[in-house]
Design a protein that fits this description.
single chain; 277 residues; alpha/beta; Oxidized Rhodanese, domain 1; five-stranded parallel beta sheet; 10 helices; 14 strands; 17% strand; thiosulfate sulfurtransferase; Thiosulfate_sulfurtransferase
Length: 277
Protein backbone atom coordinates (compact mmCIF):
# COMPACT_ATOMS: atom_id res chain seq x y z
CA UNK A 1 0.00 0.00 0.00
CA UNK A 2 1.39 3.38 -0.96
CA UNK A 3 1.50 6.33 1.39
CA UNK A 4 0.53 9.93 0.72
CA UNK A 5 0.87 12.91 2.99
CA UNK A 6 -2.12 15.20 3.06
CA UNK A 7 -1.31 18.80 2.26
CA UNK A 8 -1.82 21.54 4.78
CA UNK A 9 -5.37 22.74 4.18
CA UNK A 10 -6.08 26.29 3.06
CA UNK A 11 -9.78 26.88 3.87
CA UNK A 12 -9.80 30.30 2.16
CA UNK A 13 -9.52 28.50 -1.22
CA UNK A 14 -12.90 26.83 -0.74
CA UNK A 15 -16.09 28.59 -1.84
CA UNK A 16 -18.66 26.66 0.22
CA UNK A 17 -21.19 23.86 0.01
CA UNK A 18 -24.45 23.92 -1.98
CA UNK A 19 -26.24 22.46 1.05
CA UNK A 20 -25.89 19.93 3.88
CA UNK A 21 -25.94 17.07 1.34
CA UNK A 22 -23.64 17.00 -1.68
CA UNK A 23 -23.67 14.74 -4.72
CA UNK A 24 -20.75 12.82 -6.20
CA UNK A 25 -20.62 15.01 -9.32
CA UNK A 26 -20.22 18.10 -7.16
CA UNK A 27 -17.53 16.53 -5.01
CA UNK A 28 -15.63 15.36 -8.09
CA UNK A 29 -15.12 19.03 -8.99
CA UNK A 30 -13.67 19.82 -5.55
CA UNK A 31 -12.01 16.62 -4.37
CA UNK A 32 -8.50 17.90 -5.10
CA UNK A 33 -9.06 21.20 -3.31
CA UNK A 34 -6.38 21.64 -0.63
CA UNK A 35 -9.06 23.27 1.54
CA UNK A 36 -11.23 20.18 1.84
CA UNK A 37 -11.07 17.36 4.38
CA UNK A 38 -12.94 14.17 3.43
CA UNK A 39 -13.79 11.72 6.22
CA UNK A 40 -14.63 8.03 5.74
CA UNK A 41 -16.98 6.63 8.41
CA UNK A 42 -17.10 3.03 7.15
CA UNK A 43 -15.50 0.03 8.82
CA UNK A 44 -11.71 0.07 8.60
CA UNK A 45 -11.45 -2.91 6.26
CA UNK A 46 -13.70 -1.17 3.75
CA UNK A 47 -11.59 1.98 3.92
CA UNK A 48 -8.42 -0.05 3.36
CA UNK A 49 -9.99 -1.79 0.35
CA UNK A 50 -10.56 1.53 -1.40
CA UNK A 51 -11.60 5.04 -0.42
CA UNK A 52 -12.04 8.47 -1.95
CA UNK A 53 -8.81 10.32 -2.80
CA UNK A 54 -7.60 12.26 0.23
CA UNK A 55 -10.13 10.68 2.60
CA UNK A 56 -9.06 10.00 6.18
CA UNK A 57 -10.58 7.17 8.18
CA UNK A 58 -12.37 7.87 11.44
CA UNK A 59 -13.52 5.38 14.06
CA UNK A 60 -17.11 6.53 14.45
CA UNK A 61 -17.44 4.86 17.87
CA UNK A 62 -15.15 7.58 19.24
CA UNK A 63 -18.03 10.06 18.99
CA UNK A 64 -20.20 8.20 21.49
CA UNK A 65 -20.55 7.60 25.17
CA UNK A 66 -23.07 5.26 26.78
CA UNK A 67 -25.14 6.49 29.72
CA UNK A 68 -26.28 4.47 32.72
CA UNK A 69 -29.70 3.95 31.14
CA UNK A 70 -27.94 2.64 27.98
CA UNK A 71 -28.77 5.74 25.97
CA UNK A 72 -26.01 6.86 23.61
CA UNK A 73 -24.95 10.50 23.63
CA UNK A 74 -22.26 12.65 22.05
CA UNK A 75 -18.87 12.94 23.74
CA UNK A 76 -17.86 16.10 25.61
CA UNK A 77 -16.69 19.22 23.82
CA UNK A 78 -13.12 18.80 25.10
CA UNK A 79 -12.84 15.21 23.91
CA UNK A 80 -14.48 16.07 20.60
CA UNK A 81 -12.00 18.89 20.00
CA UNK A 82 -9.13 16.50 20.60
CA UNK A 83 -10.27 13.74 18.24
CA UNK A 84 -11.35 16.14 15.50
CA UNK A 85 -8.10 18.08 15.63
CA UNK A 86 -6.17 14.86 15.08
CA UNK A 87 -8.06 14.42 11.80
CA UNK A 88 -6.52 17.64 10.53
CA UNK A 89 -9.74 19.58 11.00
CA UNK A 90 -9.69 23.13 12.33
CA UNK A 91 -12.67 25.40 12.88
CA UNK A 92 -12.41 26.64 9.29
CA UNK A 93 -11.74 23.35 7.48
CA UNK A 94 -14.59 22.37 5.13
CA UNK A 95 -15.55 18.73 5.72
CA UNK A 96 -17.36 16.11 3.62
CA UNK A 97 -18.27 12.85 5.37
CA UNK A 98 -19.46 9.60 3.84
CA UNK A 99 -20.33 6.01 4.78
CA UNK A 100 -22.03 2.98 3.24
CA UNK A 101 -25.38 3.04 5.08
CA UNK A 102 -27.39 5.81 3.39
CA UNK A 103 -25.42 8.50 5.19
CA UNK A 104 -26.46 7.60 8.75
CA UNK A 105 -22.99 7.63 10.30
CA UNK A 106 -21.87 10.53 8.14
CA UNK A 107 -24.94 12.51 9.20
CA UNK A 108 -24.13 12.05 12.87
CA UNK A 109 -20.53 13.10 12.26
CA UNK A 110 -21.70 16.23 10.46
CA UNK A 111 -24.28 16.97 13.14
CA UNK A 112 -21.56 16.61 15.81
CA UNK A 113 -19.49 19.20 13.96
CA UNK A 114 -22.49 21.52 13.81
CA UNK A 115 -23.17 20.90 17.49
CA UNK A 116 -19.68 22.04 18.41
CA UNK A 117 -19.68 25.15 16.26
CA UNK A 118 -18.32 23.96 12.90
CA UNK A 119 -20.76 25.00 10.19
CA UNK A 120 -18.91 24.03 6.99
CA UNK A 121 -19.74 20.32 6.84
CA UNK A 122 -21.81 18.16 4.51
CA UNK A 123 -22.71 14.53 3.78
CA UNK A 124 -21.82 12.83 0.49
CA UNK A 125 -25.03 11.21 -0.71
CA UNK A 126 -24.48 7.61 -1.73
CA UNK A 127 -20.92 7.38 -0.42
CA UNK A 128 -18.41 5.29 -2.35
CA UNK A 129 -21.20 3.64 -4.35
CA UNK A 130 -22.30 6.97 -5.81
CA UNK A 131 -18.67 8.01 -6.28
CA UNK A 132 -17.76 4.98 -8.38
CA UNK A 133 -21.09 5.12 -10.22
CA UNK A 134 -20.05 8.62 -11.31
CA UNK A 135 -16.93 6.97 -12.80
CA UNK A 136 -14.60 8.46 -10.19
CA UNK A 137 -11.60 6.58 -8.89
CA UNK A 138 -10.91 5.21 -5.44
CA UNK A 139 -7.49 4.67 -3.92
CA UNK A 140 -5.83 2.51 -1.29
CA UNK A 141 -3.25 5.15 -0.43
CA UNK A 142 -2.92 5.98 3.25
CA UNK A 143 -3.51 9.61 4.10
CA UNK A 144 -1.49 11.09 6.93
CA UNK A 145 -2.73 14.46 8.10
CA UNK A 146 -1.26 17.27 10.12
CA UNK A 147 -3.08 17.75 13.45
CA UNK A 148 -4.95 21.02 13.71
CA UNK A 149 -6.36 23.02 16.60
CA UNK A 150 -10.12 22.71 16.91
CA UNK A 151 -11.94 24.84 19.47
CA UNK A 152 -15.33 23.35 20.31
CA UNK A 153 -18.02 25.97 20.88
CA UNK A 154 -21.34 24.26 21.71
CA UNK A 155 -24.27 25.50 19.64
CA UNK A 156 -27.41 25.14 21.74
CA UNK A 157 -29.66 25.31 18.67
CA UNK A 158 -28.40 21.93 17.43
CA UNK A 159 -29.33 19.89 20.50
CA UNK A 160 -32.24 19.21 22.82
CA UNK A 161 -32.13 17.45 26.16
CA UNK A 162 -35.01 16.18 28.27
CA UNK A 163 -35.29 19.49 30.12
CA UNK A 164 -35.68 21.26 26.78
CA UNK A 165 -38.51 18.87 25.87
CA UNK A 166 -40.23 19.52 29.20
CA UNK A 167 -39.98 23.29 28.76
CA UNK A 168 -41.49 23.07 25.26
CA UNK A 169 -44.08 20.37 25.98
CA UNK A 170 -47.02 22.76 25.55
CA UNK A 171 -45.58 24.65 22.60
CA UNK A 172 -48.00 24.11 19.72
CA UNK A 173 -45.16 24.34 17.22
CA UNK A 174 -43.07 21.68 18.97
CA UNK A 175 -42.88 18.24 17.33
CA UNK A 176 -40.99 15.26 18.76
CA UNK A 177 -40.17 12.68 16.09
CA UNK A 178 -39.33 9.07 16.93
CA UNK A 179 -37.56 7.91 13.77
CA UNK A 180 -36.98 4.30 14.80
CA UNK A 181 -38.69 1.30 13.24
CA UNK A 182 -42.36 0.77 14.05
CA UNK A 183 -41.78 -2.20 16.36
CA UNK A 184 -39.39 -0.08 18.44
CA UNK A 185 -41.90 2.74 18.67
CA UNK A 186 -44.71 0.36 19.67
CA UNK A 187 -42.50 -1.26 22.31
CA UNK A 188 -42.07 2.09 24.03
CA UNK A 189 -41.57 5.72 23.11
CA UNK A 190 -41.33 9.12 24.72
CA UNK A 191 -44.60 10.81 25.74
CA UNK A 192 -46.02 12.87 22.89
CA UNK A 193 -43.64 11.47 20.27
CA UNK A 194 -44.93 10.98 16.76
CA UNK A 195 -43.59 8.10 14.70
CA UNK A 196 -41.95 8.84 11.35
CA UNK A 197 -39.47 6.19 10.31
CA UNK A 198 -36.15 7.46 8.99
CA UNK A 199 -36.27 4.94 6.14
CA UNK A 200 -39.16 6.87 4.60
CA UNK A 201 -36.47 9.15 3.17
CA UNK A 202 -34.51 6.48 1.31
CA UNK A 203 -34.83 3.71 -1.26
CA UNK A 204 -33.28 0.30 -0.63
CA UNK A 205 -32.45 0.20 -4.35
CA UNK A 206 -29.81 2.86 -3.89
CA UNK A 207 -27.34 4.15 -1.28
CA UNK A 208 -28.50 7.72 -1.96
CA UNK A 209 -29.31 9.65 1.19
CA UNK A 210 -32.64 10.93 -0.12
CA UNK A 211 -35.13 9.37 -2.52
CA UNK A 212 -36.98 11.91 -4.68
CA UNK A 213 -36.59 14.99 -2.43
CA UNK A 214 -39.58 16.86 -3.90
CA UNK A 215 -42.05 14.05 -3.30
CA UNK A 216 -40.45 13.49 0.10
CA UNK A 217 -41.20 17.09 1.06
CA UNK A 218 -44.82 16.59 0.01
CA UNK A 219 -45.11 13.40 2.06
CA UNK A 220 -43.67 15.13 5.11
CA UNK A 221 -46.15 17.98 4.87
CA UNK A 222 -49.00 15.51 4.33
CA UNK A 223 -47.89 13.77 7.52
CA UNK A 224 -48.10 17.05 9.43
CA UNK A 225 -44.35 17.63 9.53
CA UNK A 226 -43.93 21.21 8.37
CA UNK A 227 -41.06 23.72 8.14
CA UNK A 228 -42.60 26.11 10.68
CA UNK A 229 -42.33 23.57 13.51
CA UNK A 230 -39.66 23.18 16.19
CA UNK A 231 -38.65 19.60 15.52
CA UNK A 232 -36.62 17.24 17.69
CA UNK A 233 -35.55 13.86 16.32
CA UNK A 234 -34.50 10.84 18.36
CA UNK A 235 -33.61 7.15 18.08
CA UNK A 236 -31.38 4.79 20.07
CA UNK A 237 -27.83 5.71 19.04
CA UNK A 238 -28.39 9.09 17.31
CA UNK A 239 -27.46 7.86 13.81
CA UNK A 240 -30.99 7.53 12.45
CA UNK A 241 -32.04 10.72 14.21
CA UNK A 242 -29.09 12.54 12.65
CA UNK A 243 -30.03 11.23 9.21
CA UNK A 244 -33.54 12.63 9.60
CA UNK A 245 -32.19 15.92 10.93
CA UNK A 246 -29.84 16.43 7.97
CA UNK A 247 -32.60 15.35 5.59
CA UNK A 248 -35.00 17.93 7.02
CA UNK A 249 -32.35 20.66 6.95
CA UNK A 250 -31.68 19.88 3.29
CA UNK A 251 -35.39 20.32 2.54
CA UNK A 252 -35.50 23.76 4.14
CA UNK A 253 -36.61 22.95 7.68
CA UNK A 254 -34.75 25.58 9.74
CA UNK A 255 -35.42 24.51 13.35
CA UNK A 256 -34.44 20.87 13.82
CA UNK A 257 -32.58 19.52 16.83
CA UNK A 258 -31.34 16.12 17.90
CA UNK A 259 -32.23 14.69 21.31
CA UNK A 260 -28.85 14.15 22.95
CA UNK A 261 -29.57 12.95 26.48
CA UNK A 262 -30.19 9.91 28.67
CA UNK A 263 -33.78 9.78 27.46
CA UNK A 264 -34.60 6.38 28.94
CA UNK A 265 -34.27 7.69 32.49
CA UNK A 266 -37.55 6.97 34.30
CA UNK A 267 -37.34 10.23 36.21
CA UNK A 268 -36.88 12.28 33.04
CA UNK A 269 -39.61 10.41 31.15
CA UNK A 270 -42.00 10.92 34.07
CA UNK A 271 -41.23 14.64 34.09
CA UNK A 272 -41.97 14.87 30.38
CA UNK A 273 -45.22 12.93 30.78
CA UNK A 274 -46.30 15.27 33.58
CA UNK A 275 -45.52 18.32 31.47
CA UNK A 276 -47.64 16.94 28.64
CA UNK A 277 -50.74 16.51 30.86
Amino acid sequence: MSSAYAKQRQPDLFTGFPGPIVEADWLAQHVMSPALRIVDLRDRQNYDAGHLPGAVWFDRTMLSRTCEDHSVTLISSALFASVIGRLGISNTTPVVAYDDVWGMHAARFVWALWRYGHTQAAVLSGGVDAWTHAKQRVTRSRVLCYPQTFVATPDATQRADMLWLVSHANDRQFLLLDVREEYEYVAGHLPGARHWEWQNAISTRSWAMLHHPESLRERLISAGITPNQRIVTYCNAENRAAHTLVMLRSLGYPDVRLLDDAWRSRVKVAALAAAMD
